[in-house]
Amino acid sequence: MDANPAGQGNRIFVSYAHLDDELLNQAVEHFTSDLRSFYSAKTGGTLEVFFDRESIGWGTDWRRRIDSELRGASIFMPIITMQYFNRPACREELNAFYGSAELLGAKYLLLPIVIMGASGITADNQMPEVRLIERIQFENLEEAFLAGRGTREWREALSRIADKLVTIISQAEENLSAVAAAAGVEKSEELNEEFDLFQHFDQLNQLGEALTPELEAATQDLTTWCTVVQEEMQKFGPTSPAVLRSRSVVMAAAVREPSLKLQESATTFAQSVTEADALLRAVVSQLVSVNTSHGATLAEKIIADVTQGSTDLQEFLEGLGEILEMLKTMEIMSVPLRKALKPGRIGFTKLQDSIKTIDGWRGLSIH
Questions:
Q1: 116 φ, ψ (degrees, to nearest 5)
Q2: Among candidate residues 78, 111, 69, the one with its CA nearest the CA of residue 281
Q3: In this structure, are residues 111 and 139 in contact, taking their beta carbons and an 8 Å threshold?
Q4: Can you tell me the distance from the alpha carbon of 296 to that of 205, in angstroms, rounded to the nearest whole number?
Q5: Residue 113 main-chain phi, psi, to 5 deg
Q6: How far apart are CA 106 and CA 121, in angstroms?
Q7: CA nearest to 348, candidates 319, 326, 328
Q8: What gap in Å lies between CA 154 and CA 150, rounded to an integer?
Q9: Predicted pLDDT of residue 188
Q10: Could you tell me the domains of the chain?
Q11: Percent helix / strand / coil, the chain, rounded to 5
């Protein structure tokens, strides 16, 4: 491990659910504070830790900054409990960073830290974001957080994570240096940028062609699911708890298949949106320095086509949210109904997240 007498710094963006920090008595803040100290002791360098988009100075167009941050070897560290996946902002940050890191071939710059609920991080979990964390190979610090600050478990965990950061940063610097060396002189670097740009156009065009039918399929499945749910709800009326439970079993059987179809189509659409978001923002960033009118026209067409189709769906989703609230009472009383509706709720959530991402494309400036 090389010493760092110059005290060079590296940046970490920490994403977490604030309620988790309150539950664990500011343990997330203590963890990052101690991690800075361990990292400095091991390397002589410094860690800049940012807890939100405002403190890092990214503003409203924070997604567009992710690409340049990852190219500079900044690390994304989500602090995970199962509550993390219930927070729209957390899911948004996770998907945005992952999409850009995958595009750059730098998924190693994501370092998930699971502090509670590690047993739920499985490859067969219904939530796509949970499966994503499992694929990234998270660090399990649950025992350290339960033991508390200052314990042996705590110190050993911090030492291990500090070592992991050193490895990640070293890998990033080596890879980025290799890319810079391969670019050669300034002219070659410019040509390389243009090559990347046109390659991105091709990928973006393919995704753009897929997004519209995927959105239509997800919208159709959402409409079907909503229709079945409403029809079944109308069959309920003032009755005894026993009859209510019996009818809820019938409703569970009716909504099970539409729920699964909605989850599948919405998840497929969401994955394409995440990929398109990373590509689109990379293209926009490159268009700032490379004057390509054809590329600008293509990017604007994709934005227009997809955002146009998302407007009506957004209004539909807002109305459906009220129905989901009404279902909560019945779900509490019926395990079969709760299980049958869960995939549909996940599909609904994925559509919400995707439409929010697409809405952000409206403000992108191509010129």
A1: -165, 140
A2: 69
A3: yes
A4: 12
A5: -115, 115
A6: 22
A7: 319
A8: 6
A9: 43
A10: 9-183 (3.40.50.2300), 186-361 (1.20.58)
A11: 75, 5, 20
Identity of the residue numbered 185: V
Residue 92's Cβ-count burial label (10 Å; 0-12, 13-18, 19+) is middle
The amino acid present at 260, given as its one-letter code, is: L
Tell me the helices (H) and strands (E) count for the chain, helix number first: 11, 5
How far apart, in whole angstroms, are the C-alpha atoms of residue 340 and residue 310? 27
Ranges of residues in the chain with a pLDDT under 70 are 1-9, 20-25, 52-61, 64, 176-198, 238-240, 285, 287-296, 298-299, 302-303, 305-313, 363-367
**Model pLDDT, residue 234:** 83
Phi first, then psi, for residue 34 (nearest 5°) are -70, -35
Region at 355 (left for phi over 0; alpha for psi -120 to 50; beta for the rest): alpha
**pLDDT at position 72:** 77
Whole-number Å distance between alpha carbons of 222 and 343 = 12
Give the pLDDT of residue 60. Answer: 59
Q: How many CB atoms lie within 10 A of CB 280?
A: 27
Longest dimension (CA), the chain: 79
C-alpha count within 13 angstroms, C-beta hemisphere, residue 8: 11
Q: Which two tokens stand for residue 144?
A: 């350290």
Residue 3: the pLDDT is 47
> 351, 269 in Cβ contact below 8 A?
yes
- 3-class state of residue 117 by DSSP: coil
pLDDT digits (tens, 9 = 90+) for 177-220: 665 555 554 444 443 455 466 677 777 778 878 888 998 999 99
